[in-house]
Design brief:
Rossmann fold; 7 helices; 4-stranded antiparallel sheet; single chain; alpha/beta; 6-stranded mixed sheet; 228 residues; 29% strand
Length: 228
């Protein structure tokens, strides 16, 4: 069963008298465990696609399934539930809370869960270990390098065992050495079976993914995979 499946998906925005078709009949299937890069210039539709994948927006038309469930027209409350429980987000700007320690930032997605504090802290510790940041658990973000901040953000993204990690330009604020380190970390998570979608404009970053989807004018113009 696919993790995500789009059929004839569209997204239309109205700006005054003008109609903008951000997505135009997109069909897409992402299976569990895939590592996908979505590429395209500004205005190509990749950001709109990301917003729908991450339950930050709803499509105007078409069919959208997630984990076998029809989710194209769900309520705002249901979209919030999916974001909190099924999606892990990694952003270009890291989005770490500056006054919290790394460990406290990582535990945030599960702080309101029904599990006890001991279980939450254990899950945060496991996530930090997976990204090689155990030694930085008690530091605050200003004490970290850019690469370390992004690794902490990835730990936060995986702490809730999401079905999908959605990374929006995750290396945009990093130097070339840390770009490779972060993408190698994603590669390792993919090898463990984690489903990852990276939205990027960087061909080098996209080269780490097993599958590359190129967008143009709201449509998928190319969808290629390389051998395992």
């Amino acid at each position: 069963m696919p993790l995500v499946e789009f059929e004839n998906l569209s997204k239309i925005y109205r700006m005054g008298d003008e109609t903008v078709r951000a997505l135009d009949g997109v069909g897409l299937r992402i299976d569990p465990g895939e590592f996908v890069a979505i590429l395209g210039p500004s205005g190509s539709g990749k950001s709109t696609l990301m917003h729908i994948l991450g339950f930050m927006d709803s499509p105007s038309g078409g069919r959208l399934q997630f984990e076998g469930n029809e989710v194209g027209r769900i309520s705002r409350a249901h979209r919030s539930w999916y974001r909190a429980n099924r999606i892990g987000f990694v952003f270009q700007a890291f989005n770490l809370l500056p006054r919290l320690t790394v460990a406290d930032n990582v535990v945030l997605p599960i702080v309101y869960s029904r599990s006890g504090i001991r279980d939450r802290n254990a899950r945060a510790a496991t996530a930090l270990e997976r990204v090689g940041m155990t030694h930085r658990a008690t530091h605050i973000p200003s004490q970290l390098s850019g690469g370390e901040r992004q690794r902490a953000a990835i730990a936060r993204a995986i702490v809730n065992t999401p079905s999908l990690i959605l990374a929006d330009e995750p290396t945009g604020n990093l130097d070339s050495r840390n770009v490779d380190r972060i993408m190698e970390l994603f590669t390792g998570l993919s090898a463990e079976g984690q489903t990852i979608v990276v939205v990027t404009h960087d061909e080098h970053v996209a080269g780490f993914a097993r599958r590359t989807i190129r967008m143009c004018d709201g449509r998928i113009s190319e969808d290629t995979s390389r051998p395992v």
